[in-house]
Amino acid sequence: MANAPIYHQPLKLERYLIKHEYVAPHPMCCSDAESVTMQEILELADEECTKMWKDLSLGYTECRGHPLLLEEIARLHGVSAEDILVAAPQEGIYIAMKCLVELLDKNFQIVRPHVIVTYPGYQSLYENVKAMGCDVSYWTAKLCDGIGWRFDLNELEELVAKNDTKILVVNFPHNPTGFVPTSDQWERILEICKSRKIFLFSDEMYRLTDNDGSDPLSSACAVYENAITLFGLSKTFALPGLRIGWVVTPNKTLMALMEQTKDYISICSSAPSEILSIIALRNKDWLINRTRTIIVENLKLLGKFFKKHPHLFEWYPPSASTTGFLRVKGWLLKLGEGGAMGFCEEVRAATGVLLASASLFDFDDQYVRVGFARKSIPQALAALEEFIKSRESRKQSEGN
Prior knowledge:
4-stranded antiparallel sheet
């Protein structure tokens, strides 16, 4: 009897954002940075890019990506252009997961591979492999008093040893907690994979957002032959509307499979988006510094705000990423239907401030994701302050 099909589950966070993000006046949970305008990007163009833009033909583009775009991506990661496949980030996740499972089946006769995924996280990172029939275990972040969010490497080693893991899926800087391993911890993760010949899928969408002056971690694809790196322009580069990302791996067999799989999905990328992406990567320092500046200023504001309300919030500012995971406490958890989601719904309805409950990440519903790379954070905090004052005043008048 054939195995019953396993279907993809709805992406809870995406469904929530689709419903609320474009109507809420104060989005405070989004993971992208303040978007760059078309005028800003075109003003950065050099002579070659300006000519390509003016002479652009709106035809099909090369499957793997524009040659000049591949060159810029290769320079960014320190890899060969042959190791790169341009795809929208969500498409890249699906293609890579599908091809990893297919490769293990065809080449190693492993039909139901064991996969470990950092958790909580972007649902697509674990939902895809679950729908493909894999056995999935979660490497779960813990909130440590006085320290912040941490992933325990001893726990990872135990999971690997107990399950004969074939694929490890990580996301650093981590969404939603903002956790970043140290260089030594990152080396240990890589060594675990290398020593056991585990394929490593490294979601690096928030790379280069370091706000404390530290150097970013090495890109997995540049240091391990069985790694796949996912990166793109949606987060750090503040260009989500281009829908340009890429997967990178030195594994030639895997790259060939991913190219073939892309033929069934988008086939190729948008011609205008590719030219604009070349411009962006040739001006990466300006774009990265722009995003970092916004992040640093917003983290100062968030720190002051949450310090003012220690009975309601527990906050540990991340050293990288565009998001953090805020613990909600006290009477806020009793609002509406209760939990962090009840708080989020009450705040959204009363003020238009949009926060994302941990329940949207299938996680403990006493946390909310805060996004801090947009310029609207001051207005959102002002609205949230008024909400707290109003509700606390009401509680006092009711004698509670």
